């Protein structure tokens, strides 16, 4: 009787260990993790694991992933690869507010690029306390950070409770959340020339990767026709009559100068992906993207969420 009890105890312990190990491997949530009040990543990412330990020191530099694309080319969808990854802090459209500042007359358009660079450099360091783009206003505007950053979305800043939280507290909270992750990813659809991020790519303290996402312009235009105004084009040109030319011209230049004839500063750091391929085969493309970035793709942690795009300005 004692023996069979022991046998069953050992057996169930064994099964338990195997199931846990399987879930860890798959990068899935441990059941009841919330009960223990722990963050998902703390459970299956012990601070030193074999993968990290075996990575050479240059691979351990902070990865900064720039998802560069244009409005309505699938960047919200592709951005979810990063948002759903527990090691990456994903910033959905850090420059969105700047476009509105220009249109509202609060910012001189000729200063846009300089201010944009300040903001991005700050974010690379998890700093949200720059003067231009108030984090609090940013959260309130369209709630985009709440909707598109899975960690912040879970916090008490979202959806609109932050009206009672001070500016400094909001910034500190964003910094804390950002600092718990190893890497950071941005979606950039308001810069026309990849050259813009050159100073960041050249910065040796980070490991920059650029994903240039393109889509058949017919699909992009078809999608834009159903969406709202192209505010960024209006900001740049004061007139959105030349939208097709602008789209094709931007794509052609970027592909020619940075992908087909990659300059030295971008060698090995840029990858072009087509939205059509992502939508046909999201898992394989996900693996390809993460191989390029040099981080592990965990199918379990990439529950691809297909959400309504019509509300986002992508
Ligand atoms: C915007 O900046 C440009 C260049 O610095 C300057 O010439 C122009 O007067 C500024 N416009 C406004 C409205 O401040
Ligand atoms: C390089 O990046 C680090 C970390 O983001 C930053 O603190 C530093 O100011 C950057 N250096 C230059 C020259 O941009
Ligand atoms: C935009 O520019 C074009 C060409 O200059 C002009 O024909 C058109 O009326 C302008 N549209 C608006 C809304 O200003």
UniProtKB/TrEMBL annotation:
One of its GO terms (biological process) is sulfur compound metabolic process. The chain crosses the membrane at residues 7-24. Residues 65-302 form the Sulfotransferase domain. Pfam families: Sulfotransfer_1. One of its GO terms (molecular function) is N-acetylglucosamine 6-O-sulfotransferase activity. Keywords: Membrane, Transferase, Transmembrane, Transmembrane helix. This is Putative carbohydrate sulfotransferase 1-like. It comes from Stichopus japonicus.
């Amino acid at each position: 009787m004692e023996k069979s009890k022991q046998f069953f105890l050992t057996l169930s312990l064994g099964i338990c260990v195997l199931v846990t190990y399987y879930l860890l491997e798959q990068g899935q949530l441990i059941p009841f993790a919330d009960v223990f009040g722990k963050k998902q990543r703390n459970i299956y990412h012990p601070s030193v694991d074999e993968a990290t330990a075996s990575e050479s020191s240059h691979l351990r530099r902070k990865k900064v992933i720039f998802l560069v694309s244009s409005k309505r080319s699938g960047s919200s969808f592709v951005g979810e690869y990063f948002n759903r990854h527990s090691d990456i802090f994903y910033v959905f459209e850090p420059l969105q507010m700047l476009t509105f500042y220009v249109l509202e007359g609060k910012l001189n358009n000729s200063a846009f690029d300089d201010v944009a660079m300040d903001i991005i450099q700050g974010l690379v360091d998890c700093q949200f306390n720059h003067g231009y783009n108030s984090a609090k206003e940013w959260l309130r505007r369209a709630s985009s950070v709440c909707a598109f950053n899975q960690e912040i979305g879970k916090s008490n800043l979202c959806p609109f409770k932050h009206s009672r939280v001070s500016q400094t507290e909001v910034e500190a909270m964003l910094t804390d959340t950002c600092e718990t992750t190893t890497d950071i990813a941005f979606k950039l659809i308001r810069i026309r020339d990849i050259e813009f991020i050159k100073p960041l790519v050249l910065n040796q303290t980070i490991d920059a990767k650029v994903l240039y996402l393109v889509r058949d312009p017919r699909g992009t235009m078809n999608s834009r026709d159903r969406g709202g105004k192209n505010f960024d084009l209006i900001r740049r040109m004061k007139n959105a009559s030349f939208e097709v030319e602008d789209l094709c011209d931007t794509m052609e230049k970027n592909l020619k100068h940075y992908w087909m004839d990659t300059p030295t500063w971008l060698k090995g750091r840029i990858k072009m992906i087509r939205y059509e391929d992502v939508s046909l085969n999201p898992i394989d493309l996900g693996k390809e993207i993460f191989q390029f970035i040099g981080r592990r793709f965990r199918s379990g942690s990439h529950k691809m969420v297909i959400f309504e795009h019509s509300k986002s300005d992508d």
